[in-house]
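Protocol check, entry for the methods section draft. Step 1: assemble the input record (protein sequence plus ligand SMILES). Step 2: submit for complex structure prediction. Step 3: store the structure tokens unaltered in the notebook. Ligand used here: NAP. Step 1 record:
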Amino acid sequence: MNNTRRRFLKAGLLGGAAVAAGCTTEVSTDARGSTAPWRPLRVLILGGTGFIGPHMVREALRRGHIVELFNRGRTDSDLFPDLKLLEGNRDNGLDALEGGSWDVVIDNSGYVPRHVEDSARLLAPVVSHYLYISTISVYGDFSKPINEDTAVGTMEDPTAEEVTGESYGPLKALCEQRVISEIGAERATILRPTYICGPGDRTDRYSYWPIRTMRGGEMLWPGTPDDDIQIIDVRDLANFTIDCLEQKIMGVYNTVTPKGSFKMGNLLEDCIAVTAANMSPTWVATEFLNQQDGVQLPIWEDPKGTNSQLLTVDGSRAAAAGLKNRPTRETARDTVAWWKTLPAERSATLHAGLSADKEAEVLALWHEQNA
Ligand SMILES: NC(=O)c1ccc[n+]([C@@H]2O[C@H](COP(=O)([O-])OP(=O)(O)OC[C@H]3O[C@@H](n4cnc5c(N)ncnc54)[C@H](OP(=O)(O)O)[C@@H]3O)[C@@H](O)[C@H]2O)c1
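Step 3, stored output:
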């Protein structure tokens, strides 16, 4: 017996849409003008727990699709007790997928090209569509404007598998290539999100801003209110992912807020609006920050630095294909609401941004030099 743990959907979870795989239902003309009979997609998610997976699971279920998960059962293993879990490891442990059949697969746990190649090869005959969650980190040079045709980064040793800050992007680029070579571009979607944020984000890169704002007092804001930033709300990414599956949207898409639409000043306004905190911002010049050791501010870049284009990626292709970005204020509001539900030991520490001591030290020096 293999290590497959079988858990079956309870009728209640899918509600009225809980129809068996393959069954079809007549529906009236949908928003896209299609009159084809509707049937749920059988969706396999490689991952499905962690940060982005649960949002995709919930959106797929909300739309009436049938979802099965493949993962090691280590992360939040009790999150979806009603879903069928195929337990295994992407590293030489795909047995649980043998003999299965699905309409589509979402691969959101692929970091190593060999793992992605193995799963894509195994699934190629039994799925019609493979959607791979990549990243904008695939691009090789962030000093120049970025769109989907910009060259991706490369690995000195393309057989290396260690995922580090440096290798993460080039490895994901190789993973994308394995998807295309095993599945074919005509059956593959590659989504390249920028910083994914919203409820459930474990990195705190976006959350730092509203949560630090909540603490009040003088707060360091880098650069100028006009500096560009870019995010993707995890729920918008999940919606677009399921849209791609339903509408058979193939190809490569940067998934970001529209270029130039979101500035540090907007982020500040969002943070103040959703927290109503008594925070007073101090904008600190980029040139000064560049001279300080250990000052890392998440989701912000020096507009004149080597990563100047990281936060102005062209997302028009995804927008034309239907990606919709909710107002950033909603992301801020829901991030704060989610944060307030976390256990005290988790919310005691932000995993990104400046510590209170470091911030006070840098602000004191800034005021001293600008008195
Ligand atoms: N966070 C961001 O801002 C960001 C930005 C751009 C792109 N992305 C991409 O988004 C994707 C998902 O991010 P995330 O933070 O939600 O994911 P994550 O936490 O890395 O992935 C978690 C999911 O993958 C499963 N998993 C991990 N290793 C596995 C293995 N060896 N075999 C089988 N299952 C495995 C986990 O379950 P088990 O632990 O139980 O196995 C869990 O379900 C990644 O592809 C990442 O590159 C993230």
